[in-house]
Amino acid sequence: MMVTKKLLVLVLVSVITFNLVSGNVWLDVPNEAFDSALYDEVLDEELCEEQLAFISSDILLAAFFADAGFRIPKGVLEGNFVDLGNYHQCLGLNQQLPTSELQGKYCMIEVPLNQDFDIPFNYGYNTSFDVRTLPLAEWEENVKKYNSMKTAMLDMSGYHRSSADSPLANIALRLAVCIPQSCTTKQALSSLSTTSGLKYTDEFCRLPNDKPWVPADIVAIVIFSIIGLLTILSTTYDVWQQIILKRDPKSVSVLSTAFSVYTNGRRVMNFTSSGGNIGCLDGIRALAMAWVVLIHTLTTENTFSNPMEIVEWVQTWKSLWMTGAHITVDTFFTLSGFLVVYTTLGKFTGKQLIKNVHLFWLNRLLRMFPLLAAVSLWEASFLNRFGDGPQWHVVAGHVEGCRTNWWSTITHTQNYMNPWFLCIGPTWYLAVDVQLHILSPILLFWVLLGSRKIALTALFGGLAAILTAATTYNFIKDFQPFLMGIDPMYYFTTYYVNTLTRASPFFVGMIFGYFAKTFRIKLQKWQVVCFWVLALSLSTFILYADHATRFDADQTIANLYNSFIRPLWALFIGSLVYMCNHGYGGPINWFLCLSVWKIHSRLSFAIYLIHSGMMFAINHWSITTVYFTVSAMTYKFLSHYTFAFIVSFFAVLIIDAPFTTLFKLMLGGGAKKPQPQKKEMDVESPQKEVLE
After folding, report:
1. Cα separations (Å) of 199 from 23, 172, 195, 247?
2. What percent helix, strand, coil does the chain show, rounded to 5?
3. What's the rounded Cα separation, in Å, for the pair 599 and 582?
4. What number is the average pLDDT over the span 443-463?
5. What is the pLDDT of residue 282?
6. Helices marked H in 448-524
7. What is the pLDDT of residue 3?
8. For residues 438-474, b (16+ Cβ closer than 10 Å) or e, as one string?
């Protein structure tokens, strides 16, 4: 036990030290999502003057340019300071002049509110709107909170626009302008009498066909084409052997059918349960994944036209079912720790684990690698061509994040190397989870020795040590209690994606995994009822505490919240799994064990990787602001989840399932012909991975 204590102390001291002194690694973007050189090449001052003169002489052409941008944002009185103009109309403007070609260029500018100017309501009207009349003082707190929310999400997407330290300092109208591509905004706007003396800063400009082809695109085409060809050949061979020739599936080459959609589809769509499964995990995993997609439906949305209503809604109890969803990630950490112990106990001794620890780690990494690498390559290449729109620079941040930081994603180090510029935003969870798996053999060794006393001492000692270390760290740093607070990126990079602060649910899960495998208790009905009352009360308290501390909380309360709210949620999830697994779940266990959850559970890892980039792309090719309502967000959630489900299904068939078969063959898992029952057991073992 002295060895264990020394190892734990060494690990904890190392982690704390690294958290306190570590910095970020910055790398330049090797291939930008937009061709920045193109924007400089098209500028021509003399040509601009010539084209502006032609536009002023052509009323219809001038109307087209004016109609494509520069007007008062809709919903200013509800806190919206953004007008996106007409992106596609602007870039579609193309007219051959006597001496040149006139092409539209779409630009966004930021116009500070602390100046004197009028903006016309619409082209051709004399009525003006004076921004000095805006009652900003009355909106200060809501504007501050909303800007912090958007800053956090945009920074995580790789797009940096404003400082989180002073969200009110940069309040400005963000306006679209449509100008000739040969002009700068300064030269074009100076020709308009309505904008004379206007103070503004350029944000970005866009041109047609400004997305260059880069090496990542070529690599993606080659790799995905090879996989597609293998899928066609393997499926054809499989169908010929099993359907046309009607051969016994056992006699068909496993390697030749590894990429077969027919065989892999039958496995994925198999709803038969096997005796070694904990059925309720399917429902928990599927519902937790849906909750993740739900919160991202709100936070990945484009620009809202009524942001003040969002902030007001977020501060009410009506929003709890959506805003409390961030706690669901700790569900996955809990299940991960649970399954590490539950699936290992009884299969290995402590010495066997140490001798095969490299295989323990390798199996974990290989099971995640194919889909993770494929989605990283997709976001580095094809995602940039998935769509386009006035807010596409946000998606470009994802693209450039993967072109720059793909290496830290597949090595599971990006929560420390570049947490502010992630490739596949949600994969910070995978980095933390892999790091915890790498450390888990320190405790697993003692758990597998066979002595219940030693196992419990190691497990509870590990939990106590990590809670002590995390609490100490939280009180040193004095974090805010919520991701969308005053300084969201500091909170995100030093707390939210930190292995130390997110480790406690994993340790709680390990304890419940040991209990589920080795302890079975007998309870009377009244005891079961009391348990469920306490468990549901605990979950209610956690959501209440999350809501109560969201924006305004005493620092001591915030530190205690950050230290203990996550292990308490893990306590709820662990108790839920334990009771359902031992026959005390009743209708809750029945619901969580429904066969419908199996397919969702199997696809959850793919959904987790795919949904975020897809949602950002869909939301940011929108050409106008979105009006927020709860019913609209609910509908969009169902749409996003359905689309992510369909894409993930094909990703599992074509990428995940084939490479899983190949890795089993490489590691010896496919050398022997399994018995039918054992094969069924292998097909139905989603517990090997928390998100799979």
Report:
1. 37, 11, 9, 77
2. 65, 5, 30
3. 24
4. 90
5. 93
6. 452-477, 488-491, 499-502, 504-518
7. 39
8. ebbbbbbbbbbeeeeebbbebbebbbebbbebbbebb
Cα 153 to the chain's mean position, in Å?
Answer: 10
Helices (H), 478-595: 488-491, 499-502, 504-518, 525-548, 555-581, 586-592
State the residue for tokens 């991202």: 296
What confidence tens digit (pLDDT) does each residue in 384-425 have? 999 999 999 989 988 999 999 899 999 999 999 888 888 998
Q: Which of 17, 24, 28 is nearest to 417 (CA)?
A: 24
Q: Are residues 142 and 52 in contact, defined by beta-carbon separation less than 8 angstroms?
A: no
In 211-324, alpha helices (H): 215-239, 261-268, 280-299, 307-314, 320-323
Residue 86: closest CA among 122, 128, 40: 122
And the tokens for 659? 């490479």
Q: Which two tokens stand for residue 93?
A: 């403007």
Residue for token pair 């006035």: 390
CA 174, distance to chain mean position in Å, is 26
Structure tokens at 328: 């669901």
Q: Specify burial of residue 178 (Cβ count, 10 A radius: 0-12, 13-18, 19+).
A: buried
Provide the mean pLDDT of the chain.
83
Scan for tokens 């079912």, then name that residue.
321
Calpha distance 79→76 (Å, rounded): 5
Distance in angstroms (rounded) separating the CA atoms of residues 385 and 663: 32
Alpha-carbon Rg of the chain, whole angstroms? 28
